[in-house]
């Protein structure tokens, strides 16, 4: 990916994180201590079960190295702002969703490099081995996530009316930029598009559905409410595809690693739509 596209992608991710910050308040972080069980169930699903499930699926599916690493990059990333929107539309516990996204975004700053390095070690041949610079990656993620979120939260705190007015335009613009990035990746890898989609499509869909189901039933087993279960299900299955694409193309300089996250980003809107339909039908009156 050339320097211009890299800059565009970084700006897109910053805009998305800024938009997330515009929707966050201090209570979203304090809620972690007020609802510890729901938060812990969600974080276990996102931080522990998701990478494990991804690795198990990769041992069952016959995919090439690029797809395997792309799936693990995706599994290492936190939930995105899209998960909060889907949760809201599905009548889930939006406050829990936002709190999980916020907490997960902070924690994964430190876990992402280690999960990705393990994936590189596991799936790359010795003669092709590359190493993700942990310190550099943590710094990049900090700049792209924490600073924009902090700015967004400051705007929300001091200029709430402006933050509310800008929330939707920021979400729309970030979605459009993400779409352009995905189209750019598809065009760059068009010669491999059909075989990549054949390989990445099924495992991306399976990862998405399995993690959502496990998230939902783990919440029900621990006696959380239906709305909380829907939120944890969505947070477990809707990952930050933009960040995964950014790590693949910027930190690892390999657009082929971004194919699986790009395919996943398209698929999750369809499965998200199914959950929204479920929530509207069964949770609207609760």
Largest sheet: none
Give the number of DSSP strands: 0
Task: Provide mean pLDDT, rounded.
Answer: 82
**What share of the residues lie within helices?**
over 70%
Range of strand content: under 5%
N→C terminal distance: 48 Å
* Count of domains: 1
CATH topology: Na+/H+ antiporter like fold
* Broad shape: globular
Q: What is the alpha-carbon Rg in Å?
A: 18 Å
Name given to the CATH architecture: Up-down Bundle
CATH classification, class level: Mainly Alpha
Key phrases:
12 helices, 286 residues, Na+/H+ antiporter like fold, 82% helix, mainly alpha
Question: Can you walk through the features of this model?
Answer:
It is a single chain. The chain is mainly α. The chain is built from 12 helices and no strands. It has one domain: Na+/H+ antiporter like fold (Up-down Bundle). It is 82% helix and 0% strand. The protein starts with a helix and ends with a helix.
């Amino acid at each position: 990916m050339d320097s211009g596209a890299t800059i565009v992608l970084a700006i897109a991710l910053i805009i998305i994180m800024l938009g997330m910050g515009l929707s966050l308040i201090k209570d979203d972080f304090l809620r972690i201590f007020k609802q510890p069980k729901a938060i812990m169930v969600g974080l276990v699903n996102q931080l522990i079960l998701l990478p494990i499930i991804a690795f198990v699926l990769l041992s069952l599916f016959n995919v090439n190295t690029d797809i395997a690493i792309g799936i693990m990059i995706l599994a290492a990333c936190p939930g995105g702002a899209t998960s909060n929107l889907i949760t809201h539309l599905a009548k889930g516990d939006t406050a829990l969703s936002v709190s999980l996204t916020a907490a997960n975004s902070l924690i994964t700053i430190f876990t992402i490099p280690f999960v990705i390095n393990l994936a590189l070690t596991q799936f790359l041949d010795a003669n092709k081995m590359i190493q993700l610079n942990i310190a550099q990656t943590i710094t990049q993620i900090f700049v792209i996530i924490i600073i924009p979120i902090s700015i967004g939260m400051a705007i929300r705190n001091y200029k709430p009316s402006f933050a509310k007015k800008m929330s939707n335009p920021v979400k729309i613009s970030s979605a459009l930029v993400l779409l352009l990035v995905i189209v750019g990746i598809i065009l760059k890898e068009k010669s491999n598009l059909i075989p990549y989609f054949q390989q990445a499509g099924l495992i991306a869909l399976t990862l998405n559905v399995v993690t959502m189901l496990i998230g939902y039933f783990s919440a029900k087993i621990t006696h959380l409410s239906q709305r909380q279960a829907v939120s944890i299900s969505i947070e477990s299955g809707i990952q930050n595809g933009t960040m995964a694409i950014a790590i693949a193309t910027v930190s690892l300089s390999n657009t082929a690693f971004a194919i699986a996250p790009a395919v996943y980003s398209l698929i999750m809107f369809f499965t998200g739509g199914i959950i929204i339909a479920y929530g509207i039908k069964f949770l609207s009156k609760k």
